[in-house]
Amino acid sequence: MFIHRLPSFVPSIFPSLIWDKKADAKENQVYFTFDDGPSPEITNFVLEELDKFQAKATFFCIGKNMRLFPDLAQTVYLAGHSLGNHTMNHVNAWKVTHEAYLANKIACDEIFSELNISSIGFRPPYGRVNRAIMKKATDLGPIYMWTLLTGDYNSSLSHVSITTNCLKNIQAGSIIVFHDSQKAYPHLKVILPEFLAYCRDNGFQLSAL
């Protein structure tokens, strides 16, 4: 069974990570985030859909993709969305040394600097961290996790199961993960308009982190 919403005890184990923005609940804000881009066809689709609803979002970008598509990264930034670091090569923290992981994160930071784009913080690929990273958490900047994981990259899920299991759990302050990647696009092109319409119809304000 795919877990869209983590058990409530998980954030309490890692309190230094950002799991939601409940402090903004009085604003009725919800935060859509998109991992693994930028990717021309998919990121442009996301930007068009967000614009239809006058919504802002956050894109956690892979450095190598920013290097391949710098103009698209700039387009996202200039449209008023925020961008964050998702490592240079989508590195799994459980499969490399801490030194190698940190170097990969720093390499992505350097791409942000080259493009003169401000990074709002870091999201670890796969949501995976290790003890060494947690000890260095303050050096990595804000580390954003999530409240809801859509699973749009998972071909074993259906569009209906994603919307059914996620929409009912959206609350003010929720951080929701989508992916602007080729792998996620079959689901994303269906569910993103539905999520946007649901938030509009239920009075949620879609903001960038």
Q: Treating each run of at least 4 consecutive H or I residues as one helix, how many helices?
A: 9
Gap between N and C termini: 29 Å
Oligomer: single chain
CATH architecture annotation name? Alpha-Beta Barrel
Structural class: alpha/beta
Structural domains: how many:
1
What is the number of E strands? 7
Task: Give the H and E element order.
Answer: HEHEHHEHEHHEHEHE
CATH class: Alpha Beta
Shape: globular
* Contiguous uncertain segments of 5+ residues: none
CATH topology: TIM Barrel
Find the CATH superfamily: Glycoside hydrolase/deacetylase
Strand content: 5-15%
Gyration radius over CA: 16 Å
**Relative helix content:** 40-55%
Q: Which sheet architecture does the biggest sheet show? A: 7 strands, parallel
Name the average pLDDT. 94
What can you see in these coordinates?
This is Polysaccharide deacetylase family protein. One of its GO terms (molecular function) is hydrolase activity. Its EC number is 3.-.-.-. Keywords: Hydrolase, Metal-binding. By secondary structure, the chain is an alpha/beta fold. It has one domain (37-151, 161-203): TIM Barrel. It has nine helices and seven strands. Strands 1, 2, 3, 4, 5, 6 and 7 form a seven-stranded parallel β-sheet that branches. The model has no long low-confidence stretch (mean pLDDT 94).
